Amino acid sequence: MKIAVVTAPGAVELRDEPRPELGADDVLVEVGACGLCTMERRLFAGEKQMYPVAPGHEAAGHIVEVGAAVAGLPGVPEVGDRVSVDLLTRCGACDACRRGHTALCKRPQGDRLHDGTVSVGAGLAEFVRVPAKQAWAVGDAPMAHASMGEPVACVAHSLRLSGLHAWDRVAIIGAGFMGRLHLALSRVAGASPIGLVDVSDQRLQEARDAGAAWTATPDTAVATGGKQDVVFVTAGTPGTVELALGLCDDGGTVVLYGAFPKDLFASVAPDAIHHHEHSIVGVYSQEPEDWRTAAGLIRSGAIAADLDALVTGTYSLADVGDAFALADSNPVFRVLVGPGV
Ligand SMILES: [Zn+2]
Ligand SMILES: [Zn+2]
Q1: How far is the CA of 290 from the centre of ligand 2 (A)?
Q2: Of the bound ligands, which one is closest to the alpha carbon of residue 56?
Q3: Which H or E element spans position 185?
Q4: Which of 12, 15, 54, 88 sits at a 20 to 30 Å CA gap from 289?
Q5: 153 Cα–ligand 1 center, Å
């Protein structure tokens, strides 16, 4: 089969790789679509240097084979089913996994191709193998939607840890791909009103078109949106933590979703957090129950229009280099690769 390998900054090639061999607890998936996420963009841009590497962790496709030990079990997808696949390593053995925090699994993520090339997802390929427990059926949802299972699961995780209730007032800082998914899932969860904050007029216009009740730039956010029950920070830039706390009402929660520069510190007044009962919650990646939520959401069609609006471009696997180039441009939401889009 063919698989995409990033060999240097700006360089992607298609290599021949044996089709993955199925273990008794695995399923084999013929990939229909794989999205290019921040990780893939950073590898291509040279911001994260580990070459050669086979990336692609946002994959979806059809089941073509089911391992003997899991075939026929209730809940296990069957041959022909359309699935979104969770390509994270969740060892189950490490301390984080034992405490239920499998998003923080301590076993190194990834695997190796037959020639020793490091793989992180390896979803930019014709086939991908995954433990059956990490394949999630999405009914007859479009393949493009199925390929967004991983980011939707990350945002479901964010909402779950936020403790969001129906009719909560929500502000989302950052109106990029992840901010827009927070808008979609908060709406489905019954939040209202929902506002978005960004520095880009174009992004704010797109957010209003997608149903945001209000939008603002950072310096006008408090005056425009007022106090909030939950504030999601999806843009990890200097000043956003302080802004989020400024938007947070008594008893409210600030959720730190996006990555921040490692050397960034925020100035926070502990006494204000005490007196206003503010909660600051860090969220990272996703866990199996978030995948269950994501697969259900995608299967239901409840966020179909939201997901359609977030596809910036689609490419065949043969044109994966062009796909990476578009993903590395700005502004961009998701670029999808595969025969199903
Ligand atoms: Zn991702
Ligand atoms: Zn683990």
Answers
A1: 17
A2: 1
A3: helix 177-188
A4: 54
A5: 10
- Residue 9 has a pLDDT of 97
What does the pLDDT look like over 131-184, one tens digit per residue?
999 999 999 999 999 999 999 999 999 999 999 999 999 999 999 999 999 999
Would you state the pLDDT for residue 10?
Answer: 97
Q: Which residues on adjacent β-strands are paired with residue 58?
A: 35
CA dist list (Å): 272 to 194, 251, 253, 267: 24, 11, 13, 12
Burial of 100: CB neighbours in 10 Å, binned 0-12, 13-18, 19+: exposed
Structural domains in the chain, CATH included, are 2-148+310-337 (3.90.180.10), 155-282 (3.40.50.720)
Under DSSP, the state recorded for 109 is P
Ligand 2 centre to CA of 92 (Å) is: 5
Cα(274) to ligand 1 centroid in Å equals 35
Q: How far is the CA of 37 from the centre of ligand 1 (A)?
A: 5
How remote is the CA of residue 107 from the centroid of ligand 2, in Å?
5
Tell me the average pLDDT across 192-219.
Answer: 98
CA–centroid distance, residue 190 to ligand 1 (Å): 25
* Predicted local distance difference test score (pLDDT) of residue 225: 98
pLDDT per residue as tens digits for the range 81-133: 999 999 999 999 999 999 999 999 999 999 999 999 999 999 999 999 999 99
Predicted confidence (pLDDT) per residue in 234-250, tens digit? 999 999 999 999 999 99
Ligand nearest to the CA of 89: 2
From the CA of 104, which ligand is nearest? 2
CA of 273 relative to ligand 1 center, distance in Å: 32
The alpha carbon of residue 187 and the mean position of all alpha carbons in its chain are separated, in whole angstroms, by 18
Distance 170 CA to ligand 2 centre (A): 33
CA of 251 to the centre of ligand 1 (A): 31
What pLDDT is attached to residue 196? 98
How do residues 261-298 score in pLDDT, each as one tens digit?
999 999 999 999 999 999 999 999 999 999 999 999 99
